[in-house]
Amino acid sequence: MFGRLRKTPHGELQKAIGYRFRDAKLLTMALVHRSFRFENNEYDFDNQRLEFLGDAVLGLVSASHLYDSYKDADEGTLTHLRSTVASGKALAKVARQVGLGESLMLGKGEEQSGGRHRESNLADVLESVIGAVYLDGGIKAVDKVFRKLILPELEGKRTSVWAENPKGRLQEIAQRLWQCSPHYRTTAEKGPSHAKVFMIEVIVNGNPMGRGKGASKREAEAQAALDALERLGEQSL
User: What is the pLDDT of residue 39?
Assistant: First the structure.
């Protein structure tokens, strides 16, 4: 029963994920989708429990790595980075790269409906494999797989975080350098009520640091924060 894998043998898959199982049955369990179990009475398990475990373990390993690697990042930034790297989209991408879709054991209906390439299935099976790795080799084994498969996904993520959250970055810098928070003030409002343009100035440590404009105060504040970051030489972070 445990040898019935599709297309990608255990050996190739273990090489792809960077971990060799002592108990290869755990890997097989991680590959059994619930639809396969329902259509094959001889199987009394699927990968849902391993998925649950893997999700929790991945969260812990991700948080630990981010905490150690981004020492100047605040809680909000760390949370954003963790949610980005552990998102369904990111996990599905990794699952495709190592061929987990080809190895996934699906029921006929799920197979015919494109389940082998469905993002949710791919993300779930990767979490299941991580859960299996944890049971087989512990947290050190998971960390090894994380560094091989998921850590590369963090490359460049911090830049995108600051682009998405310039106010958060400016807040962090202001707290670290001057123990204060930026203050945003509206300097002008132009245009009719249905098409207003707001002009915002951001004050840091008592000094004007940046200016921005936008169709909403929120947009204008973000532009002002970006302007301040550029003036501070932080635009590349």
Answer: 86
